[in-house]
Amino acid sequence: MDGIADMGGTTGWGPAQRPRADEPVFEEPWQGRAFAMMLLSNRLVGGNVDSVRHAIERLDRDAYLDDGYYGRWLNGAELLLTENDVLAPAAVEARARRLRGEDVDEPDAPELNLPRREPVADSLRSLDTAPKFQPGERVRAKNMSPPGHTRLPRYVRGHTGVVAQIEPPSVLPDTNAHFQGENPQHVYTVQFDSRELWGEDAEPFTLTIEMFESYLEKAS
After folding, report:
1. How far from 101 is each of 8, 50, 94, 98, 207, CA to CA, in Å?
2. Distance in angstroms (rounded) separating the CA atoms of residues 75 and 73
3. Under CATH, what is the fold of the domain 1-113?
4. pTM for this one?
5. Which end of the chain is more exposed for a tag (fewer CB within 10 A), N or C?
């Protein structure tokens, strides 16, 4: 879906900072707990890696940007728990206010009715069909805006690249995120010239992206 999470290729965010050589896994203890809470919340509701990504990309601007990277994980976990009726929508805020000493009532927990889903160990699959595209072939990223989850970046849509190699088939995130089936597809490493994406004034380099077969079409 097109939203705040699809930031690739956009401008105005300032220079990227090189990570420190001694950078810890988590700068502060709460960040590790936030990461763990998202993993546990997703397991509780029977989610998968794609449903996690879809939860995070549906956050509003404040929840996605102002609360920082691990704030997104916390906000995404809260969304998963509330929309699956594990928590009432106002429960987290009520608990936070009570921790600050305010005398507020916490809403009653909803009736728990979690769907039964089998956990997915990995995303790689086997296919009997042959890949539609071959290395060296020119392809175009389809110019489409799916209403749900997708891993097709907005900035490559409608642009032409070259297949560099064929990767192992994998579960399609677009359907897996919504529990509509795995729909495994061939995956391709596609190379795009920066000037094809951002015009002749762009710094010249080659951008490499892994793309699912349904994202691509033959370039004329």
Report:
1. 42, 38, 11, 5, 52
2. 6
3. Cyclin A; domain 1 (1.10.472)
4. 0.87
5. C
